[in-house]
Structures are given as structure tokens and as C-alpha cells.
Amino acid sequence: QSVLTQPPSASGTPGQRVTISCSGSSSNIGVNFVYWYQQLPGAAPKLLIYRSNQRPSGVPDRFSGSKSGTSASLAISGLRSEDEADYYCAGWDDSLSGWVFGGGTKLTVL
Amino acid sequence: EVHLVESGGGLLQPGGSLRLSCVASRFIFSTYEMNWVRQAPGKGLEWISYISSSGSSIHYADSVKGRFTISRDNAKNSLYLQMNSLRAEDTALYYCAGYYNRGGFSWGQGTLVTVSS
């Protein structure tokens, strides 16, 4: 059971906007940044969002992150077939003194 | 661009030991905080250990505490994970992942550890 809670699956059609939620607590998301990673099939994870809402260079602006209280979300607009992947949220947990991940959300593009 | 290459994985029996290595290049390794993260087959990501840029601060997940030891050699641009008393549930792809100034993890390609009798 993961410390951060994500829905196991999400789906959308090409061009749609989808959001993936990530629920935490006062010891992680509530007080620290949230990070989002994309893992394509058979590949290593890749950073999508850092510091809750910042995009690394090279990540399309179709991807955006937000945080409110002890929850965060990743939004993907203009959905494309190549966005089909697993998405993980993560953050530092002050109580555990370690990084915690969500269980991952498998995004299907219909 | 951050480049990380893990090695040292393999097949071994329960109770065995293994040392993983991660060699870094194309960035100033000594300024990065480093981690080991693993992924069991078909499962999600699990953080297992952290080491600060100088090596002075170390943390472990409860699942590996007392069995695994993280270390680094900044002169060799290398990160290590000594794994002892291995169990079947330690079977996973092990990634090294580093970050600087809360910028998010950069990842290696992983090395596979299989624990089976």
C-alpha cells in the first residue's frame, strides 16, 4: 500500500484533457514539493513535473502540475497516443525521512 | 545531461549478497543527492535509500533497513548499494536516481536483481 494514493487507471480519447490525482498527507505533499514521472512501457521513468508545477526543458506544455493542501494533480491536455504510459507522483516525507511514491496510474488512450 | 549507468545485478539465492554500482557522467556528481529506487516485476516504484551529496546523511526504507548499505565515492563519480541477506521479495529492477536543488530525479536504465532458489 503506497503512502501517496493515485487511481490505478485513467483513460481518454485523442485531444481530450485528463487529470490524474495524487493524495498524500501533512508530512509529505502538505509540506513538500510534488514530482511527477512518466514511465513508458519497457523504459526507465522520466521526470515530467518538478517542484509541484515546473516543467523540465523538453517536456511539452500539454503537461501541467498543481498542488493544493495535501493533494496534487497532473493534467494532460491534447491527449496523444504516445502519452499512453504509467504515471507516478512522488514527494519527500518528513515523518518517514524518505521519498514516497504513488502506486502509479496507467493511462490508456482510447 | 545527467547520465547514470547501473551494473552489478544478477541471479542469486536467498540469503546471498550483491553489490550494485552506478557510474555518473556529464554532470557534477558531487553536487547531486542520490537514491536507489526499485521496481518489482509488474509493480510500481519503491524508494529504498538516499545519500546526501557529501555522504554525511543517509536514509533507508524500512523494507531494507539493516540489510542494505548505500555509499558513494565522489572521486570516482560512483554510487553503490551493498545488499545482504537477500530475499525473494527483493527481486526487482534497481534504478539509481539523482537530483540537484529539488529539481526532480534523473534516472539510469536500471539493473535487474533476481533472488530465487
Per-chain topology:
The complex is a heterodimer of chains A (110) and B (117).
Chain A (H helix, E strand, L loop, with lengths): L8 E4 L5 E6 L11 E5 L6 E4 L13 E6 L2 E6 L8 E9 L4 E4 L3 E5 L1
Parallel strand pairs in A: 1-9
Antiparallel strand pairs in A: 2-6, 3-4, 3-7, 5-6, 7-8, 7-9
Chain B lengths: L2 E5 L2 E3 L5 E8 L7 E7 L5 E7 L6 E3 L7 E6 L4 E6 L8 E8 L6 E2 L3 E5 L2
Parallel strand pairs in B: 2-11
Antiparallel strand pairs in B: 1-3, 3-8, 4-5, 4-9, 5-6, 7-8, 9-10, 9-11
Order of helices and strands of chain B: EEEEEEEEEEE
Q: Helical stretch count of chain B? A: 0
Question: Stretches of chain A where pLDDT falls below 50 for ≥5 residues?
Answer: none
Oligomeric description of these chains: heterodimer
- Summarize the amount of helix of chain B as a percent range: under 10%
Estimate the mean pLDDT confidence of chain A.
97
- Residue share in helices of chain A? under 10%
| Beta-strand percentage range of chain A | 35-45%
Query: Total number of helical segments of chain A?
Result: 0
Strand proportion of chain B, as a percent range, falls in over 45%
Q: Unreliable stretches of chain B, pLDDT < 50, 5 or more residues?
A: none
Average pLDDT score of chain B: 97
The overall strand count of chain B is 11
| Annotation, overall tally of beta strands of chain A | 9
What is the chain-wise order of helices and strands of chain A? Answer: EEEEEEEEE
How would you sum up the global shape of chain B? globular
Largest sheet of chain B: 7 strands, mixed
Gyration radius over CA of chain A: 13 Å
**Radius of gyration of chain B over all CA atoms, rounded:** 13 Å
Question: What would your notes on this structure say?
Answer:
The complex is a heterodimer of chains A (about 110) and B (about 120). By secondary structure, chain A is mainly β. Chain A has strands at about 10, 20-25, 35-40, 45-50, 65-70, 70-75, 85-95, 100, 105-110. In chain A, strands 1, 3, 4, 7, 8 and 9 form a 6-stranded mixed sheet that branches. Chain A has a 3-stranded antiparallel sheet with strand order 2-6-5, with no helix packed on it. Chain A is globular. With about 120 residues, chain B is an all-beta fold. In chain B, strands 2, 4, 5, 6, 9, 10 and 11 form a 7-stranded mixed sheet that branches. A 4-stranded antiparallel sheet of chain B has the order 1-3-8-7, with no helix packed on it. Chain B is globular, with a radius of gyration of 13 Å. At the A-B interface, strand 3, strand 4, strand 7 and strand 8 of A face strand 5 and strand 10 of B.
